[in-house]
Amino acid sequence: MTDATPARRTDQAMAPQRIALVDLLDRVLATGVVVTGDVTISIADVDLVYISLQALISSVRAGGPGPPPPAGMDQQAGRS
Predict the structure, then answer these.
(1) CB neighbour list of residue 56: distance below 8 Å, 6 or more residues apart
(2) DSSP string of 28-64?
(3) What is the pTM of this model?
(4) What is the pLDDT, as a whole number, of residue 79?
(5) pLDDT tens digits for range 25-74
(6) Which residues pair with residue 38 across a beta bridge?
(7) What is the dihedral of CA 14, 20, 24, 25, to 10 degrees?
């Protein structure tokens, strides 16, 4: 007699999981994602416009140190 328990565990591991949209968005922003695509507009098999799209989607941490001031800027210049 064979035991079907390991097969059930494999099926459960391979089953798709439901993830809330907020959790998915949190994962994507935490790790970042690159979206690429190509758009071609053509009439009668003649390519008129070709657009290559690339986007990087990632989160930015708030609360960290800001960017350094531009070189040559005096902190006293803004004061009267």
Answers:
(1) 32, 33, 34
(2) HHHH-EEEEEEEEEEETTEEEEEEEEEEEE----SSS
(3) 0.38
(4) 53
(5) 888 888 888 889 999 999 998 999 999 999 988 877 666 676 777 777 66
(6) 52
(7) 170
